[in-house]
Amino acid sequence: MKFLIDMNLPPEWVNIFGQHGWHAVHWKEIGEPNASDDTIMDWARQHDYVVFTRDLDFGMLLAMTFADGPSVVQVRAKDIMPRSLGNLLMAVLHEHQSVIENGALLTITEDRTRVRILPFKADSL
Q1: Are the beta carbons of 103 and 117 closer than 8 angstroms?
Q2: What values do phi and psi take at 108, rounded to 5?
Q3: How many helices (H) and strands (E) does the chain have?
Q4: What percent of the chain has pLDDT over 90?
Q5: Is the pTM of this model over 0.90?
């Protein structure tokens, strides 16, 4: 899997993903810092990346469009630094790798993970 790290997360995450065998790039390295969420989603879809973000708007875009990708991993934690959240996130990603590869929205907090398979169905929203 390849991960696109959103602007709202620190670039240090690139190294954490790399240490666990996954390629990652921070959006600031490839796009405009003020790019719209749609632009970021389109880029991720075209280049087969999973979006890693704190922003709930990415999940909303998936729900509104009934898209089957890209997968989005959204973290909802107070401390989003790799030293605090890195081990938990990597364990969750390994556990759910197959569903992420096939299209999913994962929401991760300090004490739970919610997985929704893409595309969303109109009656499940």
Answers
A1: yes
A2: -120, 125
A3: 5, 6
A4: 94
A5: yes
The answer to whether 53 and 41 have CB atoms below 8 angstroms apart is: no
In degrees and rounded to multiples of 5, residue 72 shows phi and psi of -130, 130
Q: Which residue has the tokens 């929401």?
A: 107
Q: Which two tokens stand for residue 54?
A: 């704190």
CA 56 to chain centre: 10
Residue showing tokens 């087969």 = 48
- Do residues 23 and 2 touch, judged by C-beta distance below 8 A? yes
Tens of pLDDT, residues 33-89: 999 999 999 999 999 999 999 999 999 999 999 999 999 999 999 999 999 999 999
Contact criterion met (CB below 8 Å) for 44 and 50: yes
Cα 89 to the chain's mean position, in Å?
11
Residues in CB range of 59: below 8 A, 6 or more apart:
72, 74, 105, 107
Helices (H), the chain: 13-19, 37-47, 57-65, 82-95, 97-102
